[in-house]
């Protein structure tokens, strides 16, 4: 079965499994990203470090993830995005194994650094490849369906991280995700050989690699709308994940919930994202990009406020769900704009977008980790709520003033 209709795809003859396999790779990436969130109290106790220091397992992953994407974007443009994703997924299997076998906290930080670097290619190059083969007016729902894998991965990572922490064995989830990455990489290599030439296209380039890459990013940064999108996604990542990374710890310390229960509660973030993905075509049609970005920010702000100020734990049920729904409403709108910032350099453009997002995460989690001991988890979530709302309102106003695109 192929996606061969010109009305469905910008490139004919695309195997039907091409996007689902990318989504499975994103599933592994999502687990890797969030698996350590509920582990923080257990890691702090096991390695005799503070909660803020333990959060460095998140920070170093995000830093490596963000910076490495600046490299993988041009590489994907040069050698073929789908093929580079396949190689990166295989590398992720190895770096996940390094995490599982880390003998101490410093080696674990080093392993998480390499895991972030190898995972960096998966999401942005998958998005850029979808941008290559799917027309703009059909792209947002396809991107949303692709992101189901990442959404489920984020939720699964939080759940199995909590289960492993309560069981006193934080290594097991890394063995699991290594196996997932290995199986998906083999499938990706096989499917890449079946892609039509137009879907495996590479862009031949002259000159030194570093100078060429620098020139591509200079071109992207010279575009005013690209600068707007990149700044917005950086701030979105900083404010949202600076608060989100401490929700499980907040529920554990404030309400005495087990780490497994806290992780299961945070999984509702993924459920909110899943609901958006399923309903994305309808939401895009009814709200448009302006409405999605504005209401997404409102939902996130209300969700974080409700969770941070909750007098009882069950307020966080609606909070986590609403945060996921609102985040993907806002973030998916940013993603669709990222795929069209510089179509002739789509790999580099989307990688710059993803890099800014995860660098924002690393900055946000780092600052929150440094302040959480003095401010408390509730105030960290309040700051995140105000910040995300301000970012969403500003971006929606900018979108409203832009002409419609086809």
The CATH architecture category equals: Up-down Bundle
Radius of gyration using CA atoms only: 20 Å
Our estimate of the beta-strand percent is under 5%
The total beta strand count reads 2
Given the helix and strand composition, which structural class is it? mainly alpha
What does it look like?
The protein has 406 residues and is an all-alpha fold. The protein contains 16 helices and 2 strands. It has helices at residues 18-34, 40-46, 51-54, 56-79, 81-101, 105-119, 122-133, 136-167, 172-192, 209-221, 224-244, 247-255, 259-309, 315-338, 346-375, 377-400, and strands spanning 2-3, 14-15. It has a two-stranded antiparallel sheet. Helix 4 (56-79) packs antiparallel against helix 5 (81-101) and helix 8 (136-167) packs across helix 14. The longest helix is centred in the last third of the chain and has 51 residues, at 259-309. It is globular and about 55 Å long. The model is unreliable at 1-9 (pLDDT under 50).
């Amino acid at each position: 079965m192929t996606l061969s209709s010109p009305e469905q795809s910008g490139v004919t003859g695309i195997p039907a499994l091409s996007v689902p396999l990318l989504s499975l790779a994103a599933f592994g990436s999502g687990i890797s990203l969030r698996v350590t969130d509920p582990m923080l109290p257990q890691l702090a106790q096991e390695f005799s470090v503070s909660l803020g220091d333990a959060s460095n397992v998140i920070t170093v992953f995000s830093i490596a993830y963000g910076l490495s994407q600046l490299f993988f974007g041009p590489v994907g443009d040069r050698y073929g995005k789908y093929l580079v994703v396949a190689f990166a997924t295989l590398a992720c299997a190895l770096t996940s194994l390094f995490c599982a076998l880390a003998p101490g906290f410093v080696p674990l930080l080093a392993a998480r650094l390499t895991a972030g670097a190898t995972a960096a290619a998966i999401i942005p190059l998958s998005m850029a490849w979808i941008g290559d083969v799917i027309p703009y007016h059909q792209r947002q729902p396809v991107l949303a369906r692709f992101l189901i894998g990442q959404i489920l991965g984020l939720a699964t990572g939080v759940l199995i991280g909590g289960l492993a922490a309560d069981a006193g064995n934080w290594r097991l989830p890394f063995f699991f995700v290594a196996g997932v990455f290995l199986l998906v990489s083999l499938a990706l290599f096989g499917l890449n050989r079946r892609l039509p030439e137009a879907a495996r296209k590479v862009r031949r380039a002259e000159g030194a690699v570093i100078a060429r890459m620098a020139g591509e990013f200079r071109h992207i940064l010279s575009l005013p709308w690209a600068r707007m999108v990149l700044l917005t996604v950086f701030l979105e990542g900083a404010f949202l994940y600076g608060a989100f990374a401490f929700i499980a710890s907040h529920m554990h310390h404030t309400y005495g919930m087990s780490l497994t229960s806290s992780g299961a509660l945070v999984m509702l973030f993924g459920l909110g994202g899943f609901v958006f993905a399923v309903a994305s075509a309808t939401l895009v049609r009814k709200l448009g990009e302006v409405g999605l970005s504005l209401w997404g920010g409102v939902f996130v702000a209300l969700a974080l406020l409700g969770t941070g100020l909750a007098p009882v734990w069950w307020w966080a049920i609606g909070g986590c769900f609403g945060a996921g729904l609102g985040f993907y409403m806002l973030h998916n709108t940013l993603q669709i704009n990222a795929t069209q910032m510089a179509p002739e350099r789509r790999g580099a453009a989307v990688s710059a977008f993803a890099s800014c997002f995860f660098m924002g995460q690393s900055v946000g989690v780092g600052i929150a980790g440094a302040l959480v001991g003095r401010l408390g988890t509730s105030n960290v979530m309040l700051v995140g709520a105000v910040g995300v709302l301000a970012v969403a309102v500003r971006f929606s106003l900018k979108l409203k003033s832009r002409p419609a695109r086809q």
